[in-house]
Specification:
The chain is mainly alpha-helical. Helix content is 87%, strand content 0%.
Length: 134
């Protein structure tokens, strides 16, 4: 059964992740000459980082019994859920297609999916190795 403290920690983790996603997109849009490409890079970056963190946390938490369940929820569901964004990725891909940038949309979609899956695998590996070291 989920408690109010579980929900509160998911809420806090999600808020932190969402703010970091927003700031990452802002940063990439400012350092890139073409704002739309900067926003795409920001989304790709948070999806990659979030996938790595989720894979790591899941693997690490599976091997560590002393970590409270609500902390696991705050990181995996809250923070990673707020940081990563499938809906934004989907909307950006749609806009690329709508604007006739078919090849770019395919590359963008493949990069998001393939790199994020690789980051999950890497995170699982790193979490497993790290949990055994502690």
């Amino acid at each position: 059964m989920i408690s109010m403290s579980d929900l509160f920690l998911i809420f806090i983790g999600g808020g932190i992740g969402s703010v970091l996603r927003y700031l990452t997109n802002l940063l990439f849009s400012k350092i890139n000459f073409i704002q739309s490409q900067g926003i795409l890079l920001g989304t790709l970056t948070v999806n990659i980082i979030g996938s790595l963190i989720l894979g790591f946390a899941f693997s690490f938490f599976m091997n560590k019994v002393g970590i409270p369940h609500n902390i696991k929820l705050a990181i995996c569901v809250g923070f990673c859920g707020g940081l990563t964004t499938f809906s934004t990725f989907s909307f950006e891909t749609y806009n690329l297609i709508k604007n006739g940038e078919i090849l770019y949309s395919l590359v963008y979609a493949l990069l998001n999916v393939l790199i994020c899956i690789l980051m999950i695998v890497l995170g699982l590996y790193l979490g497993n190795v790290t949990s055994k070291a502690f």
